[in-house]
């Protein structure tokens, strides 16, 4: 049995950030990072599909304490992974990681005021104990993708590839490829596969908003070349941050105007034979789902190629050699790519219990975007869905550290959010209200919010950091003081 002050679950971007914040803000506390896989990097070492990249600018998507120094701001997966690995190595965080340590159960003991974690290490079971948990394992299931309903898929005689488990060595040169989906993954795959495939069709049930961003920022690189690094990097970060937040808030405040603007920009980049309606005219307003970004317009450029097209239709059935749509169109294919989304899962899929009683995550309320009612000394570290993920994850981690510091300051042993439903008249809703299929199907598994302070989810960096400085650590929070019944070790 090992005991630590903190245990971080997951060694992705959020887990490395948590390690750094613990190291610098709580240097006297012990911590370890438990990673189920054998590699650092989370998403960026897990996904292997062609062209995997960020759809956010790395200047703000990167770690707040580690400037992004590369010229390319919308970077490919391998470059992002190299960045994460070097950050962890340089800060000594990689030495705190236990690879192939999958947390299968986490049980809080009110008597001992400790978490006990059951961990699978390549078939053997280990026990870890901790005062506080940081669940930095993201929000999707690494072991299975979203189970999309594709009628007749079993009839297909070609290759079926899911981006989450891309077949090693899959050769698509000269082949007919149909990508099922219209999200960020499909937008990434289409231009890359079209370079060598015989023909690529993106088959979508409903369209998405797609916007172009430059892969290399002229202004950003100018700042880096002209000014000392200690001045250039902060200036460049604030430039990206203000631009990103300004656009996000514009979309949220003026959705109809934002819709018209994005539709006009898409129309300017599409070839004449690909009309905006129905292929790029979503039913929802911007930010109701995450916007798709493509570097240097590579997605739109691909649609100008003779071997690339988009079809907006519903699948009637999959045949032996393709897909028959509801409108009667037959899409011949050698390879089907099911880019249909992720299966949402919190806490890395570990069974979460308090005093041996399983906690129903979907029945809990979210306190300030990271802690859940009924679960002491633990936080689910989640980033933003309308802007750079890491900004939200970092705000969450820093808030959890604030909570821990307060427990120490007042002599408490734990902190647990408490929600009194009799005092709230506002109807609750899922913490993520997006209309994306994978979030809609997970709504009964997502914790709840009311939108009132402190019962809200991840909003935006400006509000979250304001709350970090001035927000209450006591409203909606119960601090448990030591008693004779508590066995503290």
Question: Tags for this entry?
Answer:
489 residues; alpha/beta; FAD/NAD(P)-binding domain; 9-stranded mixed sheet; 5-stranded parallel sheet; 29% helix
Structure overview:
The chain has 489 residues and is of the alpha/beta class. The chain folds into 2 domains: 2-142 and 343-480, FAD/NAD(P)-binding domain (3-Layer(bba) Sandwich); 147-340, FAD/NAD(P)-binding domain (3-Layer(bba) Sandwich), CATH 3.50.50.60. 29% of the residues lie in helices and 22% in strands. The chain contains 13 helices and 25 strands. The chain has helices at 13-25, 43-46, 58-61, 77-90, 184-193, 218-226, 229-253, 255-269, 276-279, 298-303, 389-410, 437-440, 461-470; strands spanning 2-9, 31-34, 97-98, 102-109, 114-121, 124-135, 159-161, 176-180, 199-204, 210-213, 292-295, 308-312, 315-319, 322-325, 330-332, 335-338, 351-354, 357-358, 366-367, 371-372, 378-380, 414-417, 429-430, 448-449, 477-480. Strands 1, 2, 3, 4, 5, 6, 17, 18 and 21 form a 9-stranded mixed β-sheet that branches. Strands 7-16-8-9-12 form a 5-stranded parallel β-sheet, covered by helices on one side. Strands 13-14-15 form a 3-stranded antiparallel β-sheet, with no helix packed on it. α1 links the parallel β1 (2-9) and β2 (31-34). α6 runs antiparallel to α7. It is globular, with a radius of gyration of 23 Å. The two termini are 13 Å apart. The relative contact order is 0.15.
């Amino acid at each position: 049995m090992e005991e630590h002050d903190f245990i971080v679950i997951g060694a992705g971007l959020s887990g490395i950030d948590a390690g750094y914040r613990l190291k610098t803000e709580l240097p006297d506390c012990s911590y370890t990072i438990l990673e189920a896989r054998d590699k650092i990097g989370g998403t960026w070492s897990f996904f292997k599909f062609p062209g995997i990249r960020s759809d956010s600018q790395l200047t703000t998507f990167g770690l707040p304490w580690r400037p992004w120094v590369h010229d390319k701001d919308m970077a490919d997966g391998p470059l992002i992974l190299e960045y994460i690995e070097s950050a962890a190595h340089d800060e000594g965080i990689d030495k705190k990681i236990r690879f192939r340590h999958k947390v299968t159960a986490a049980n809080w003991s009110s008597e001992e005021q400790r978490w006990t974690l059951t961990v699978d290490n390549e078939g053997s079971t280990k026990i870890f104990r901790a005062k506080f948990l940081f669940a930095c394992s993201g929000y999707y299931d690494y072991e299975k993708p979203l189970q999309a309903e594709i009628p007749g898929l079993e009839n297909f005689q070609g290759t079926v590839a899911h981006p989450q488990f891309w077949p090693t060595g899959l050769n698509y040169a000269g082949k007919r490829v149909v990508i099922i989906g219209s999200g960020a993954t499909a937008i990434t795959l289409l231009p890359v596969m079209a370079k060598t495939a015989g023909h690529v069709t993106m088959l979508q049930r409903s369209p998405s908003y797609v916007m172009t961003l430059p892969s290399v920022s002229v202004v950003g690189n100018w700042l880096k070349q002209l000014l000392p690094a200690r001045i250039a990097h902060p200036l460049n970060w604030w430039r990206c941050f203000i631009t990103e937040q300004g656009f996000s808030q514009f979309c949220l405040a003026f959705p109809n105007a934002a819709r018209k603007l994005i539709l006009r920009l898409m129309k300017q980049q599409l070839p004449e034979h690909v009309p905006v309606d129905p292929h790029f005219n979503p039913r929802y307003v911007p930010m109701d789902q995450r916007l798709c970004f493509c570097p240097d317009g590579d997605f739109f450029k691909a649609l100008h190629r003779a071997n690339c097209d988009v079809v907006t239709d519903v699948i009637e059935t999959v045949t032996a050699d393709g897909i028959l749509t509801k409108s009667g169109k037959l899409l011949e294919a050698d390879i089907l790519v099911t880019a249909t989304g992720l299966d949402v899962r919190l806490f890395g899929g570990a069974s979460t219990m308090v005093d041996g009683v399983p906690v129903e995550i979907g029945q809990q309320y979210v306190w300030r975007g990271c802690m859940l009612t009924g679960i002491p000394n633990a936080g689910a570290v989640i980033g933003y869905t309308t802007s750079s993920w890491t900004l939200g994850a970092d705000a969450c981690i820093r808030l959890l550290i604030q909570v821990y510091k307060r427990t120490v300051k007042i002599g408490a042993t734990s902190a647990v959010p408490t929600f009194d439903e009799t005092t709230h008249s506002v109807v609750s809703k899922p913490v993520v209200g997006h209309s994306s299929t994978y979030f809609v199907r997970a709504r009964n598994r997502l914790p709840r919010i009311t939108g009132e302070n402190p019962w809200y989810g991840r909003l935006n960096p400006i509000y979250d950091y304001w709350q970090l400085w001035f927000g209450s650590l006591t409203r909606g929070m119960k601090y448990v003081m030591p008693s004779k019944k508590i066995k503290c070790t």
